[in-house]
Amino acid sequence: MSASVRSWPFIVDRVVDGDTLHGALDLGLGLLWTGRRVRLRDVNAPELSTASGRDALAYVAALISPGTAVTATVHTAQPVDNYGRTLAAITLPDGTDLATRLLESGHAVSTPSRLI
User: Which CATH number fits domain 5-110: 3.30.70.100, 2.110.10.10, 3.10.180.10, 2.40.50.90?
Assistant: First the structure.
């Protein structure tokens, strides 16, 4: 059986690192789930302690400025990681996938998730 997915607007407050965003999920009806960290599914960017990690952060920050609304698509079978971050695919305002952009630019590697 395949996992179901849900999508919500996500208003980005800041880019935490190359594969993590901070902001608010717009649940509709005027309800915002603020203070959320969203971790990109299926990719891993280098740690910020490395030059490559800082480059990945700069790359994502150039794509997503504070206040930008993106779309977060969550697989309900695995909605959060071990650190409580929401796991999601992120679609940018221009319709492109953030993980794909990171992979194509060399700022991340693929790490496919295993859905339960």
Answer: 2.40.50.90
Cα–Cα distance between 38 and 30 in angstroms, integer? 20
Predicted TM-score of the model (pTM): 0.89
Which residues, in sequence order, are CB contacts of 20 under 8 Å at separation 6+? 37, 38, 39, 40, 85
Cα–Cα distance measured from residue 18 to residue 112, given in angstroms and rounded to the nearest whole number: 17
pLDDT digits (tens, 9 = 90+) for 56-108: 999 999 999 999 999 999 987 778 888 889 999 999 999 999 999 999 999 99
